[in-house]
């Protein structure tokens, strides 16, 4: 019995030792696999995001890297590489394929990249523009003035339901007008979009020079006071572009062929409700007038009357009687200004001494207010484009630019 017990204990000991040995071997094997896996993973370059920016990290012990020109070229020599990098024929084949892909898929031609002429409200997209100036508002918000040579889409205005409670629309989204020395650096053709940034981007100090084009990624726009306003979101990014970038080249070529033109939106919808005395005079944008070298000058322009103050029938009758002036707010794709109908020009502008009903009808046509007989009650109005003659004047010779005003003349609204 003893020997049997002894033999049984011995067999149990041998079995337990064998099992422990296999467990040790299996554990060692698994540890080897795990260490090998993590060593392999550490040798692979990793793409990570830090503060919204993408970075590529690599292990110097196991990995290597090389940077090549992205343009179509036969040169396969990197302009920067690590010490352990050794090029191969396979690398050259991949590089050639990537360059060919860039040729047929140039940056800036994707669906989400828009021009100012096709921006939309409440949607995100990319925008490639030249940054003309950067201004910091009193509340710390930075305003970027961007431009690509095109006109922003025409906006509609809320319907005027109560003339007593309607406030005239502002001329600028940023409140105070730009200093004249800054204003004169802005282009006279094409819309300048105000883009508001609530946080600082590292590219903004470079953009203050006014010489760079940039791609605004994941930007959005909305309308305030029927003016377009760009907004940089927390997820937005700003990328500086060279003048050789495909999107920039495309825009520069288009701009060079459209040095002086009428607003794109009015080409098919310009109305004939107004006659002007200077029919053969050249076309001038409002921005051209604002940046004109002389305070006083005359010009013909193509605008929309977006507001009138006052515009009630009794006020218009007072205008014809020579007792008061009426202020119109005019806009084109480049700017928005106030222009006055002086009491001496009222009868000429409205085509004679008309009844209150006839005056109201003509003013409503200017403001885009439909006739009462039309079905439904629209919530918005779309003022028509009209030709108009303006002349500037000053109120104070000691402050000519600060007291400059505009006056409508030589313009008559048809029946």
UniProtKB/TrEMBL annotation:
Which positions fall inside the POT1A/B-like OB fold domain? Answer: 271-399
The record's GO CC annotations read:
nuclear telomere cap complex
Coiled-coil region list: none
Any idea which UniProt keywords this protein has?
Membrane, Transmembrane, Transmembrane helix
MF terms from GO for this chain are: G-rich strand telomeric DNA binding; telomerase inhibitor activity
GO BP terms: regulation of telomere maintenance via telomerase; telomere capping
Q: Which InterPro entries match?
A: NA-bd_OB-fold, POT1, POT1A/B-like_OB
UniProt entry tagged with the keyword rRNA processing: no
Residue ranges crossing the lipid bilayer per the database entry:
20-40
Question: What is this protein's name?
Answer: POT1A/B-like OB fold domain-containing protein
Native species: Oryza meyeriana var. granulata
